[in-house]
Amino acid sequence: MEKSVTDITAPIIGQRFRGFLPIVVDVETAGFNAKTDALLEIACIPILYNEQGEFVPGKALHAHINPFEGANLDRRSLDFIGIDPFNPMRMAMAEDEKSALKRIFKELTAIRREQECTHAVLVGHNAHFDLGFLQAAVARTGTKNQSPFHSFSVFDTVTLSAVMFGQTVLAKSCIQAGIDFDGKEAHSALYDTQKTAELFCYILNKLAPNLLDTMTADQ
User: Which of 42, 62, 116, 175 has the most CB atoms in a 10 Å sphere around its CB?
Assistant: First the structure.
């Protein structure tokens, strides 16, 4: 008997990317050198399937982070992203506190296991920039064994957008995809991660066959 959509549970990502769980990440930093400049904000969104076999953004994880001891704070970078690292309203925490990187890693690892994935792979717009700062923070905090991320593999939405739209700028790529983008909200890690996740899902859903169709055809 043919199953209806409501009878089918959401498939798991472990079936799709060789056991990788795509997690969209964006960081806001006090410069461009991952080893010397402060990581100030991080947001992560896992990419999952809905019951229709479409890629969708999962729950967002987000933290404001205090500069590590001795960190360089480039004034031009701070002015550009609009962050005052020492503003108490940020409710920031140290990198190595349980409620910062460790908390995010713990939640992402739980999702990775639920999705039957062996690793997480970082998805980003200029992904190696975000991976570099994440790895530097992992090295400083001694959380290598807790990080779910692959050490060098990434999925880059710059490349995907260039192929799909002929664009490499996040805002322009979103506009091409019909995704609302507010330039006033840009350079917030959470907002940029949300928009990158929407863009990544849009591109995948356009390029990849609908998984639900494939599954029902085999039944």
Answer: 42
What is d(CA 122, CA 90) in angstroms, rounded to the nearest whole number? 25
pLDDT digits (tens, 9 = 90+) for 134-154: 999 999 999 999 999 999 999
Residue spans of the domains in the chain: they are 5-208
| 47-52-57 Cα angle (round to 5) | 20
How far does CA 148 lie from the centroid of its chain? 12
As given in the structure block, the two tokens for residue 213 are: 């169709």
**Closest CA relative to residue 54, chosen from 185, 207, 176, 174:** 207
Instruction: Look up residue 176 and give its two tokens.
Output: 């091409």
Active site residue ranges: 187
Q: Helix, strand, or coil here: 47? A: strand
| Residue located via tokens 């799709």 | 16
pLDDT digits (tens, 9 = 90+) for 170-211: 999 999 999 999 988 888 999 999 999 999 999 999 987 655
| Spatial CA neighbour of 58 closest among 200, 166, 153 | 200
The closest of 87, 95, 150 to 123, measured between CA atoms, is 150
Helix (H) and strand (E) counts for the chain?
A: 7, 6
Structure token digits, residue 61:
């994880």
What CATH topology corresponds to 5-208? Nucleotidyltransferase; domain 5 (3.30.420)
